[in-house]
C-alpha cells in the first residue's frame, strides 16, 4: 500500500529471516497485504510457508528483518497479535474427545469472547460451518471437511479482522475444498483480510494476489493473471501416444526448456523462436510420428514449474543447495 494512502497494511514484512541452526527456512522475504485482501502463499511442502505464517502469528521469533500485523510488531507485540487475529494451523488442532459445542465453548474462552456475546457468536459459527445438526457430535466423528469448517468457526469466534489459514484444506476432498473457499470468499466480502498458505494450484486462482515461495525465497509475486502473463507466456503443448518417451527426448534438446508432463500431454517453453516443424521432424526421427504441437495459455501450475526450474538452474550455477 502506498505510504501516502492513509491506509495501514494488514500485514507488512521486510527482509524477514528465520534460521534453524545452519538451515535458512525463510530467506529475507518482503511483501505486504492490503486490508480485505485474499493473499495466497504458494509453494511446495518445506518451502518456508508455515514458518513465515508462524512468525506472523507471534508463534516464532524472527532472526532478522521486521514485520507488522495489524500495525503490531511481530518481534515485540506477539501476545497482542495473538489476541487480535484468527489462526487455523496446518494440523487439525481441535479436541477430538469434545463435541462441536464444547470445542466452540473452549475457544470462546481462549479468545476472551465476552459471556454475553458467546451464544450469538457460537450460533453464527455453527451456521457458517453448516454444523447445526452436529452440535453434540464428538469431533472425532466428523468427516475431514466438517472438521476443517469447525476449525475455521473456532478461529473466527472473536471476529478478527485478519485471518491466517495454514494449509486449511490439506487432506480433504475436492468438493469440501471448494466449499471451504466459498466461506473464505464470504469473509473477504465482509472486509476480513485472509492470509492463506496452500500447495494446491487451483486454490491459488481464488486469491487476489500470490507470493510464490521456494527454498525460503520469494521467487515471484502478483495477481494470478499477472503471473500468467509475465511467465510461461510462450508455453506450448505436445500431444502424442508416447508422452513419457517424448519427455525424455525434449529434456535433452537445447531448443526446449522446462518440459513437464501434464496428464496425457507435455508442456514446454521454446528456448527461442519455436521451430515447430523442426521439433516434429526430430520426434519423427526418434520414432514418434503422431506428435502434435500447439501454443496454449499457461496455468498457474505451468508458471510454478517454470519458476522452480529457473530457480533450480540458478542454484546449480552458483553451487547453492
List the helices and strands and how they pair.
Blueprint lengths: L10 E10 L2 E11 L4 E5 L6 H8 L7 E6 L2 E2 L4 H7 E4 L11 H11 L4 H15 L14 H12 L6 E5 L7 H16 L3 E6 L2 H4 L4 E6 L2 E6 L1 H7 L5 E4 L3 H8 L5 E7 L2 E6 L5 H10 L6 E4 L4 H19 L3
Parallel strand pairs: 3-8, 3-9, 6-7, 7-8
Antiparallel strand pairs: 1-2, 1-4, 4-5, 9-10, 11-13, 11-14, 12-13
Q: Mean pLDDT, nearest integer?
A: 90
pLDDT < 50 stretches: 1-5
Strand content: 25-35%
Radius of gyration: 23 Å
Order of strands, widest sheet: 6-7-8-3-9-10
Number of strands: 14
Overview in brief:
By secondary structure, the chain is of the alpha/beta class. It is built from 11 helices and 14 strands. It has helices spanning 49-56, 78-84, 100-110, 115-129, 144-155, 174-189, 201-204, 224-230, 243-250, 276-285, 300-318; strands at 11-20, 23-33, 38-42, 64-69, 72-73, 85-88, 162-166, 193-198, 209-214, 217-222, 236-239, 256-262, 265-270, 292-295.
Describe the structure.
A hairpin with a 2-residue loop joins strand 12 (256-262) and strand 13. The chain starts with 10 loop residues before the first strand and ends with a helix. It has 321 residues and is of the alpha/beta class. It has helices at 49-56, 78-84, 100-110, 115-129, 144-155, 174-189, 201-204, 224-230, 243-250, 276-285, 300-318; strands at residues 11-20, 23-33, 38-42, 64-69, 72-73, 85-88, 162-166, 193-198, 209-214, 217-222, 236-239, 256-262, 265-270, 292-295. Helix 3 runs parallel beside helix 5 (144-155) and helix 4 (115-129) packs antiparallel against helix 5 (144-155). The protein is built from eleven helices and 14 strands.
